[in-house]
């Protein structure tokens, strides 16, 4: 063993590590770009397998190089080694070990804060290793020159490159048939958010019709599309201050022009509900309704802001509205309304109202309440404070409650479960004609995955039921979205500057046989390439250049 180790070329091992680490860093830039909120140039799944595989191969080369060089002060067959050279090498060994160990642990079923700590450790140690690695490669570059020279000068170079090529050859299959190995690829398919439509228009709401056939966005107007490309628009009436608060004709805004300077009188939409063929929009001047795609008319609450709307999924005539005057209920499609506020601590400060099955819930920011028909009052269900979004779970019966300051809770089988916190709140102010929201947020679910808007990371998501959260993609403008929805296999987000989308097609998860094949190939081929590709034979040693 010692005789074989003595024949291994330190330069070849070092060059291999430099190349493999470069590939690992290059593929890792996808994740770093996501963490920085920058759009990635490629799908995460395309580089996920390559990143893991190359990391394992690099680990095999690292072990072989440590065996060859040793851990002592002096290195066999290497003259002129100073103490600080070895200290730098030992530091790199510690950093690379931390990178490899944390990377492997991230592939294990570790959840919660431990997962986030491992992600940070993996990224930080990778970044910390960049500078000393660069110096190390430059300082010992002459040892790698024989393997970069023409093959006729050093025949061993041919065997070296062949062995290294065989070791990394499986990456071609990993790109051709990608798997969602880490959490990020399991949450998104596309490289990042891209502007989809309605550029320059203020949007506060995005949702789909109950049948899922149309996408609806609202803010400075109501927009409807069946394909996400062609849109029809309806603009609510506006209040004419000179007419004593009476409604004036509809205020139209030309396509392609931003609405950031809309007059204070504009009826800005910030809540919406669809039931059957009817659509109801809550604005800062009251409630409007009509048939989807047709002109809107005012139904109620003139000069009274409507924060949130909910329609009974089994009875489209039953509507709840969270208004500045408190919770209001209509059983006849908005014809007549009754104020039902008993039991609420702050009925005029409702943030969200939503159905979960046949049950109706509301949040007044001190907690989440459920309406009890027998007692005709609201009853506290959870003390989760500052809840700004309520969303039904995938089964239609459970309910998610999201607070940017306090996290997410899930009502399931009659019990509230606290999920891991998705991130720090994103406190921002969005103004458009006097319309201001603070600590906005939204939540939606897609095929068991949870997507949250309103954290400091922009869009935060979980693929494991809220135990672990990951920032999703990049490319979103500074003022992030407040609401999200899924439509035609994509995640859509409404922002103050338009509509954005992110592809969500699934990549298959790795199976146990797949893992066994990848790990076996990486370690087996890596060790074989490190030993057979870097060993000097007598004939090669005689013909090696002096730089070796």
Give a short overview.
With about 550 residues, this protein is an alpha+beta fold. It is built from 11 helices and 30 strands. The strands form 8 sheets. Strands 1-30-29-28 form a 4-stranded antiparallel beta sheet, with no helix packed on it. Strands 2-3-4-5 form a 4-stranded antiparallel beta sheet, with no helix packed on it. A 4-stranded antiparallel beta sheet has the order 8-9-10-11, with no helix packed on it.
Descriptive report:
With 548 residues, the protein is α+β, with helices and mostly antiparallel strands. It has two domains: 2-182 and 509-543, no CATH class; 212-437, YVTN repeat-like/Quinoprotein amine dehydrogenase (Methylamine Dehydrogenase, Chain H, 7 Propeller). Helices cover 30% and strands 28% of the residues. Helix 3 crosses helix 10, helix 4 packs antiparallel against helix 5 and helix 7 (156-168) packs antiparallel against helix 10 (512-532).
| Total number of strands | 30
* Gross CATH architecture of the largest domain: 7 Propeller
Structural class: alpha+beta
Shape: elongated
CATH topology of the largest domain: Methylamine Dehydrogenase, Chain H
Radius of gyration: 30 Å
Order of strands, widest sheet:
1-30-29-28
The low-confidence runs, each spanning 5 or more residues with pLDDT under 50, are: 239-265, 427-439, 538-542, 544-548
- The named CATH superfamily of the largest domain: YVTN repeat-like/Quinoprotein amine dehydrogenase
List the total number of helices.
11
């Amino acid at each position: 063993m010692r005789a074989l180790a003595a024949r291994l070329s330190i330069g070849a091992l070092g060059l291999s590590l430099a190349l493999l680490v470069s590939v690992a860093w290059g593929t890792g830039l996808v994740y770093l770009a996501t963490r920085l909120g920058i759009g990635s140039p490629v799908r995460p799944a395309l580089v996920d397998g390559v990143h893991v595989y190359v990391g394992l191969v690099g680990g095999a080369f690292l072990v072989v190089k440590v065996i060859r060089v040793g851990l002592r002060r002096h290195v066999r067959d290497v003259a002129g080694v100073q103490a600080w050279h070895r200290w730098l090498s030992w530091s790199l060994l510690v950093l690379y070990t931390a990178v490899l160990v944390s990377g492997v642990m991230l592939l294990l079923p570790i959840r919660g804060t431990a997962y986030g700590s491992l992600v940070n450790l993996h990224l930080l140690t990778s970044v910390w290793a960049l500078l000393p690695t660069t110096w190390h490669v430059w300082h010992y570059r002459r040892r790698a020159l024989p393997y970069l020279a023409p093959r006729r000068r050093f025949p061993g170079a041919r065997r070296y490159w062949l062995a290294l090529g065989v070791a990394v050859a499986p990456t071609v299959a990993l790109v051709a048939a990608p798997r969602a190995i880490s959490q990020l690829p399991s949450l998104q398919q596309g490289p990042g958010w891209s502007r989809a439509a309605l550029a320059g228009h203020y949007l506060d709401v995005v949702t789909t019709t109950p049948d899922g056939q149309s996408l609806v966005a609202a803010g400075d107007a109501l927009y409807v599309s069946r394909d996400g490309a062609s849109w029809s628009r309806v603009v609510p009436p506006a209040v004419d201050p000179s007419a004593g608060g009476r409604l004036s004709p509809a205020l139209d805004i030309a396509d392609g022009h931003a609405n950031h300077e809309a007059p204070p009188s504009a009826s800005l939409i910030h809540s919406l509900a669809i039931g059957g063929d009817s659509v109801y929009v809550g604005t800062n001047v009251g409630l409007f309704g009509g048939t989807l795609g047709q002109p809107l008319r005012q139904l109620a609450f003139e000069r009274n802001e409507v924060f949130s709307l909910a329609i009974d999924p089994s009875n489209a005539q039953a509507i709840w509205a969270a208004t500045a005057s408190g919770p209001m209920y209509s059983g006849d499609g908005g014809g007549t309304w009754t104020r039902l506020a008993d039991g609420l601590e702050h009925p005029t400060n409702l943030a969200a109202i939503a159905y979960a099955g046949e049950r109706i819930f509301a949040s007044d920011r001190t907690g989440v309440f459920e309406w009890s028909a027998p007692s005709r009052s609201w009853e506290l269900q959870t003390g989760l404070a500052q809840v700004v979004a309520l969303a039904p779970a995938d089964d239609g019966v459970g309910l998610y409650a999201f607070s940017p300051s306090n996290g997410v809770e899930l009502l399931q089988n009659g019990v509230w479960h606290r999920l891991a916190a998705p991130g720090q709140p994103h406190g921002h102010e969005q103004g458009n004609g006097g319309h201001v929201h603070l600590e906005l947020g939204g939540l939606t679910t897609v095929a068991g995955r949870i997507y949250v808007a309103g954290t400091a990371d922009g869009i935060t998501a979980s693929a494991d039921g809220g135990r672990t959260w990951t920032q999703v993609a990049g490319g979103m403008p500074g003022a992030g979205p407040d609401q999200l929805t899924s439509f035609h296999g994509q995640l859509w987000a409404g922002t103050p500057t338009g509509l954005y989308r992110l592809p969500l097609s699934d990549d298959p998860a790795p199976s146990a046989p797949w893992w066994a094949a990848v790990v076996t190939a990486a370690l087996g081929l890596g060790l074989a390439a490190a030993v057979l590709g870097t060993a000097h034979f007598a004939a090669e040693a005689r013909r090696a250049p002096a730089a070796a």
